[in-house]
């Protein structure tokens, strides 16, 4: 189900530690410095999602079997790397979770910004809004560690009469991708 897939991606983004500068980045063979160098534009670091999120996005794109979806996602990622306006809007229109540990479980993103991308994107790769519901299931191994950030999820099942074990996450993806494509990537 897409909700589990979205939670998996969120978990990867939230829990991935920074990569040591000498460690090779999976699938690309590049070091962190190589990736950071690629993300420079006129001497200015791109945006705050770099380099971790771009690395994760590239790894996810590499797993897409459907040619149309993969090509459109790669086009968006290349556009983000080049700070192309329409591509940055794909990222900007997608939800990001602030204050997750204190109960911000709704990140609906920006539907209008995603749909309005139709006029700006290359032919056929307009924005498609997807909203997923994800159950938060933190593995017991993480809950057992003293001082672990996941301790916050152990006892709190409800906050302000809303369940904290569910997350609602809106993302903007290229229209060439199906629900099945997104689910396959996240698994």
Structural features, described:
This protein has 187 residues and is of the alpha+beta class. The protein has nine helices and seven strands. The strands form three sheets. The protein has a three-stranded mixed sheet with strand order 3-7-4. Strand 1 and strand 2 form a beta hairpin. The radius of gyration is 17 Å and the shape is globular. The termini are close together.
Quick structural overview:
The chain is 41% helix and 15% strand. With 187 residues, it is α+β, with helices and mostly antiparallel strands.
What is the fold's blueprint, element by element?
Elements lengths: L1 H14 L16 H7 L1 E2 L2 E2 L6 H11 L4 H15 L3 H9 L12 E2 L3 H5 L11 E9 L4 H4 L8 H4 L2 E2 L2 E2 L2 E9 L4 H8 L1
Parallel strand pairs: 3-7
Antiparallel strand pairs: 1-2, 4-7, 5-6
Helix pairs in contact: 1-9, 3-4, 4-5
Q: Could you tell me the strand content as a percent range?
A: 5-15%
**Secondary-structure element sequence?**
HHEEHHHEHEHHEEEH
Strand order of the largest sheet: 3-7-4
Q: What is the rounded distance between the termini?
A: 10 Å
Largest sheet: 3 strands, mixed
From the spread of the alpha carbons, the general shape counts as: globular
Find the structural class using helix and strand composition. Answer: alpha+beta
Topology, number of strands: 7
Radius of gyration: 17 Å
Organism: Lasius platythorax
InterPro entries: Nose-resist-to-fluoxetine_N, O2_lipid_transport_reg
Domain Nose resistant-to-fluoxetine protein N-terminal: 69-185
Pfam families: NRF
